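Inputs:
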Amino acid sequence: MLELSHVSSEYSGKTVLRDVSLAFHPGRVLMIVGPNGSGKSTLLRTAIHLHPRTGGTIRLDGSPLETLTPRQIAQKVAYLPQSRNVPDITARRMVMHGRFPHMSYPRRYTEADRQIVTWSLEQADAQELADRSVRTLSGGQRQKVYLAMALAQQTDTILMDEPTTYLDIAHQLQVIALAQKLAAQGKAVVLVLHDLPMALAGADRLAVLHEGALCALGTPEEIYAGGIIPKAFGISLNRVQTENGWQYYCSPLKP
Amino acid sequence: MRCLPRFSMESRQRNKKTIRISATLIAAVLVTAAMSVCLGPVMISLPEIGPVLLGRDTDSVAARIILFSRLPRTCGCLLAGAALAVSGAVIQSVLENPLAAPNVIGVNTGAGLAVAICCAAAPGIFWITPIAAFVGALAGVLLVLLIGERTGASRLTLVLAGIAVSAVFSGAVDLILAFVPEALSAYSDFRIGGFSGITMRKVAPAAAVIGAAFGAVLSLTPQMDILALGTDTARSLGLRARPVRVALLAAAAALAGAAVSMAGLLGFVGLIVPHAARRVSNGDSLPLLVYSALGGAAFVTVCDLAARTVFSPYELPVGVVLSFLGGPFFLWLILRQKGGHRDA
């Protein structure tokens, strides 16, 4: 399990994260929400040492993060970054790169690696794209391939930064369903999302960041009841009871 | 399991394509190498080459021409072409910049400054030129890497640092040539580049460096593939991106430095050949490097052959032929990118 304790971080002397304590529990979908610039992406990057922290401690399965090699971290935590390169290789080849942390010299793929890649492509609904060049795919299709690559890492924890960007609504819901399915398999799944209603509907727990600080953490029900989202975002948040449970919607604050 | 047959089929098709292209390029290298040895003011037939290479004929006129002129020259062309092309392919991949080449990271200007200093300070000591070129090329790149490293070694920082260092070095060369005009002639030969008068004593040390650096680059191809996914993704996959990037650039500098030490400043090889190789490779680094090495070797050998035979008995510097081919290609590349047809 990845645990952050009193973590702070900055960019060029400007504090971006302040005193954040958060644990990514197995079997749960944690959604991180917050206004632009609230430190959501930095939180994920700092959590796996892609961005240096200026204070606090981070432990992965009990070990301080700084005592682990990048490869050891990558074997336990997969990360889907917000901005990605688009190399001129097939989608299958790209997903195979997800096996990199598990390969030792001379880095040859085994039959087990290939089966994991096939499973990952199927899970991300990208099997039809497997033999196409990533450069010829649409933004949404590329997103699926990157998602499959993260799945191919076969880690206990998966961090996804804006995984629904470029996806139409049906595929956005598929990503949320996949996150819940992975959590049901015992993985800790963490998503940074901009879509508040979707985050509230799909999360087991929600973390609300505001100006670099964790201002609320709890179940969607608790977060709604706490009234923190309207304050953090400057919006009005409401909900209606449906046969699928509570559905949330946002509207501008009335003057 | 359903997709396993497709896996092996795709893999087989890719392997077949790789073998076909490699075989074509190996054939091109062999043909151009044979032509380079055979063609010239004195024509040598193919059957004459075998006994010379096997050491059975060392005294005939043909044997002397082959051993002391054509063979060193051909080896020099093959090695320099392969080394510059691989160096360019590595630099373009690592810096994710299709217009990058050895000169962008300070190789050419570093070598040029060292040679200009030698031409001015030790005129007439010709054996020192290749050593100076190699040391200067490496020093130029190390300086660029050091500056990049201190500022975080981002790809853009390295390119900008390379341009800045190159500008300073070029200014220093001009200053030296302004104060010591006698050095201009010797420096000019180096700047244009060429294989005239090359000997095995010059080729052998460069070959050792090129072999070692090429081996190092080949051993890092899986890391190169991961690096192509972007720094954040590469690091999240467990790759130590910065040391790998620095190691690859250092190997690329050694390749280019060794090539420059025996052939002078050959322009455009490191730009043209990797681009052509990229078009037929499948996006992976290994075929790209192999195609670049073979293509670069054949291309420089052909250019050298053209340089010394087209206006025979006069000989053009090979750098001129390369520039006449490279310049238009470079323009085409820029215009094509501007048209936005496809990412290069």
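The interface with chain A takes residues 1-4, 6-7, 10, 96, 222, 225-226, 228-230, 232-233, 235-240, 278, 282-284, 343 of chain B (CB under 8 Å). Flag for discussion at group meeting.
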